[in-house]
Structure formats: structure tokens, C-alpha cells
Amino acid sequence: EHLMMARVRxxxxxxxxxxxxxxxxxxxxxxxVHSKMTKSDRKSAMDAIRKRESRVDCTPSSGHSVNSII
Length: 70
What we know:
Elements: E1 4-8, H1 11-24, E2 31-32, H2 39-50, E3 56-60
Parallel strand pairs: 1-3, 2-3
């Protein structure tokens, strides 16, 4: 099983990259994770990654790494 993380410079760029992944490979159910999300939205995104429901994570480089939870 492989997961893909797109590390970007900003939250805005993470949202842009997320749109591209959703258009190009919706079957991978890409998610975004960043510090401006609500706690429940972050938890939902992280749960999707942990359960392998999502295979792509778009994360600003200033954000927390998800490597520690996978």
C-alpha cells in the first residue's frame, strides 16, 4: 500500500493542489490537512488516511507531518 503526500508552501497552495488531485484521481479520495481546519475536519481527514480511505494528503510544509500517525 502506498500513500502520497504533497507538501506545499502554504494553505492556499494546498487547497489548489487538492483541487487538481480531486480532478485527476478522484478514486484516491485526496484530502488536505492544515492548522486552519477545525479540529473535527482535521480528525476526519487524518482518520481517512489512517484507514487508507484516502491515498493522497496535501499538507503545507509549515504544518504537522502525518508520518508519525501512519
